[in-house]
Amino acid sequence: MSPILLLDLDDTLLQNNVDDFLPQYLGAFSKHTSVCIEPQQFIKALLAGTQAMTDNRCSGRTLKESFETTFYPLAGVEASVFEPLADQFYAEIFPRLRPLTKPIPQSIQMIQAAVERGYRLVIATNPLFPRTAILQRLAWANLPPDQYPFEVITSYETFHFTKPAAEYYAEILARLGWPAEPVIVVGDDLERDISAGRQLGLPAYWLGKPGLEPVNGSAPTQTGTIEDLIPWLEQASPQLLQAEYNNTVAWLAILRSTPAALDGFCRSLGDFDWTARAHPDEWSLTEILCHLRDVDRDVNLPRMRKLLAETNPFLSGEDTDRWAEVRKYCLQDGAESLRQFVAVREELVNLLESLAAADWQRPARHAIFGPTRLQELVSIIAAHDRVHMEQVYRYLQQMAPATLSL
Q1: What does pTM read for this prediction?
Q2: pLDDT tens digit string along 263-296?
Q3: Judging by beta carbons within 10 Å of its beta carbon (0-12, 13-18, 19+), is residue 46 exposed, middle or buried?
Q4: SS3 (DSSP) at 152
Q5: Are 47 and 113 in the same domain?
Q6: Which of 192, 193, 352, 386 lies 20 to 30 Å (CA to CA) from residue 363?
Q7: Which residues pair with 14 in a beta bridge?
Q8: Cis link prior to 105 (omega < 30° from 0)?
C-alpha cells in the first residue's frame, strides 16, 4: 500500500525562519489594523488568541472560534469592523512577506516523486493561520494546491487542535477515515512534529538539524534529509511503518478527535446530507451520530463510573446496533445529535483524564470479553470510534465529497 505523508510546511517544504518572519508579520498586521486598534494592543490580543488556540481541548469549538473568543474582548473591536481589515491584509499586505521565505528545491522534487508514486499527501502545518495564509505559503514554496493533490490542508477555520498535541494528528487521521495505509509524519521540529506524531503511535521522519538530539518521547523512526525520504520509505519494512495506537495518550487523542472531525465535516452539510443513505442497508450520518452519542451516554460512561466505584464489577453486554431502529434514529435531528455527542464525549474524556495511573488497571468482568481492565475497555472505545469514522468517510465520499478537503 502506498503511504500517506503528513507534511509540515515551514522549514520542511518552505524555508521560513520564524525569528525573521514573525516580527515582520506582526508589524505589518498591527500597522494595517491601527485604524481601529492600537498596535501594541493588537499584538497583545493576537498573541493571547493564538495561545487560546494552542490551549483548546474542546472538540466542538474550532481554532478560529477559540481565537475570536479571546481576541475580540482584548482588542476592543467588533468582528464586523476587524474582519474586512483582516481580509484586506491577507489579500494585499501578507503577500509582501514572500521575500522572507524561499522555496526548497529538494522538497519540490520529493513532492513530485511522491505524486508519481501515488502517495497521498496532507499539509500538516500548525493550523494557527487562516486558510488563505497557508495556501499562499504553499504557493511561495512553489507547491500551489491547485497543481498538487493535497487531500487535507489544516487551517484554523476547520481544525480544533494544534501541534504539539497528539489530538492534532488524530484529527487529521479521523478526517481521512483512519486509513489502513502507512501514515508517516514528516517535519523538522522535534516537539511539534516528531514527538506529537510518535505519542499518537505514528512513524515519524525527522529532518534532523546539526546539534539537536531527540529527547525522551521524541525519538524519530528515522532521521534524514528530504531527499532521502522516499528512498527510505521504499526500503523500510512494513512493520517499521505500522502505526500503533496502543497507549493512553493515543486513546484519549482518538476520543477527542472523533467529535472534532465530525464537527468539522458537518458544518458545511446541506439538509439532505444528514439523512440520506449511501446504500439502503447502511446508516445515515444522523444515525451514526445518534449511535455514537448513545453508546457513550448509556454504555461507556456508566461502565467507567461503575469500574471506579466498585471492586471488580460485572459489566453486562449491550446490543447497541438495534437501537437505531428501536430509538428511531432516522427521525432525530442530526445537528442536535452531534451537539449532544460532543457534550457526552467531553464528559467521558474529562473523566478519563482525571484518572490516576493505577485506575487504568482497575479490573472488571465483562459478559462477552471476560476478565478485563479499564484500559482495555478504553482501547475498545477508541477502536470503535475508528470503525465509525471510516464509515463516515466512505459515506461522505459518496454523498458530500467536497467536505473531505475542507
Answers
A1: 0.96
A2: 999 998 888 889 999 888 899 999 999 999 999 9
A3: buried
A4: strand
A5: no
A6: 386
A7: 10, 103
A8: no
